[in-house]
Amino acid sequence: MNKIIDEDLQNIIGADLPWGKLSGSKIVVTGAGGFLGGYLVRSLLRLNQSGKLGRPIRVIAVVRNIDLAKQSLFDCLDVPDLEFFEWDLNQIAVPNISGCNYVIHAASLASPRFYSTNPVDTLLPNSVGTAALLQLLTNSSDPRGFLFVSSSEVYGKVPDNSVLQEGDYGVLDPATVRSCYAESKRLGETLCVSWSQQYKIPTFIVRPFHTYGPGLQPNDGRVFADFAFNIIRGENIVMNSDGTARRAFCYVTDAVIGFFTVLLKGVCGNPYNVANPEGELSVRELADLLVTLYPDKKLEVEMRSQQSNYLKSTFNRLIPDIANLSRIGWKPLVAPEMGFRRMIESYSSNE
């Protein structure tokens, strides 16, 4: 396994959490072949090797394309506690998986590059897919928890000077294609709290803000990934905006520990911001930081016109308040300088 990812997994399972709650459980993870899903699957499998559990976890990796997922999780193929299950969350049907105790729903087209070209494929997994998975857990004889990976996009257009608590919301125009992601995430959250109210399913909601790290793909389409791969390829960083938009960048280990903190210690039905407000940077500041981290590459920042298929966000600054998650014992530890260095160097690490 990649040395940096291996260290990340050790840091995740080293978190002071009541991991024993997961002992002997069957856990469904959607989006298992993706960036966050891959970290979640590997973390659960690493727990089985840690001695922290009385009985091993059985992980069901729900993926849209099993061949691609096996390429992504190539290092896990011989692990006996992992099972792949091919399923399209765009369909209105409940997957035939029996006896599950937890569902972690991390499947989503998160990049804005999909919003104009694949809006239906963007919104369905967050809406009908969420309903199907909630029903899956409702059918179980021992449902212990449903974790919905939502998004900071649910806040809509908010004042640029605001620090967002979980109850702060701005305008979101539903009659625009750009809203396919945010509106469906909003619906996914409402489905979770409604299922909890009516069927007593313990549901938990996390709202990650701009999570990055090893495992992101070159075609991801989000600016922080594009910039990192510019550095990896030795290319000048290309900016398609004025660079003033400000975001809170959170390294993947901090985010995943935050997810498990909510699942194992959070309040049912309450959304939690999972982000690093100390990692706030403008897009231009991020570009300058990455160039500065690798002066030997002698790279520069280039300005170009906006690409046609990228639907720009409606807000300029998106910074969270993390007090609710901090109160149950979580805090982000990895600064952008360290996190982006780990991400970039992971692609050249073969150990």
From TrEMBL:
The keyword Lyase applies. Keywords: Decarboxylase, Lyase, NAD. Gene3D superfamilies: NAD(P)-binding Rossmann-like Domain. It holds the Pfam family Epimerase. InterPro entries: Epimerase_deHydtase (IPR001509), NAD(P)-bd_dom_sf (IPR036291), UXS-like (IPR044516). GO terms for molecular function: NAD+ binding; UDP-glucuronate decarboxylase activity. Transmembrane segments: none annotated. Signal peptide: none annotated. Coiled coil: none annotated. GO terms for cellular component: cytoplasm. It comes from the Bacteria. Its cofactor is NAD(+). This is NAD-dependent epimerase/dehydratase family protein. One of its GO terms (biological process) is D-xylose metabolic process. It comes from Marinobacter confluentis. Residues 27-275 form the NAD-dependent epimerase/dehydratase domain.
